[in-house]
């Protein structure tokens, strides 16, 4: 197996608390994982394991999976929602003086781990780019 052939397959390295080290994984070969105490060691072990697995596939006459290609995202997708939800979102966007797109983008970002709740944002138009920018709204002080 040529070293260049190995480079065509994807690899991702993740931390494993259970193993107290790094695992190198390959989407094209879900049965493959390689361990290393460091990322670099996991990648070295991965290259060895992948080479041996490909040799085994070839010896058994099994077809090799096609290498995955990088996906390029346009930043746009279409989502169908119930009419009532569409109306609620549109009303909230109007109340916040933002576009529906900006509001939904903020909600999605928050649901994926943004640290600020959507209601804590305020929006302003950037003078240079003219884009609407979401900022954390100042916190109201609590009076005792």
In short:
The protein is α+β, with helices and mostly antiparallel strands and 144 residues long.
Identify the overall geometry. Answer: elongated
Low-confidence stretches: none
Number of strands: 5
Question: Mind describing the biggest β-sheet?
Answer: 3 strands, antiparallel
- Strand pairing plus helix content: what structural class? alpha+beta
The percentage of residues in β strands lies in: 15-25%
Radius of gyration: 24 Å
> How much helix, percentage-wise, in residues?
25-40%
Q: Give the overall average pLDDT.
A: 82
N- and C-termini, Cα separation:
73 Å
Order of secondary-structure elements: HEEEHHHEE
Strand order of the biggest β-sheet: 1-2-3
Count of separate DSSP helical elements: 4
Question: Helices and strands in order, then pairings?
Answer:
Layout: H1 3-6, E1 12-16, E2 21-25, E3 33-36, H2 39-60, H3 83-96, H4 100-111, E4 121-125, E5 132-136
Antiparallel strand pairs: 1-2, 2-3, 4-5
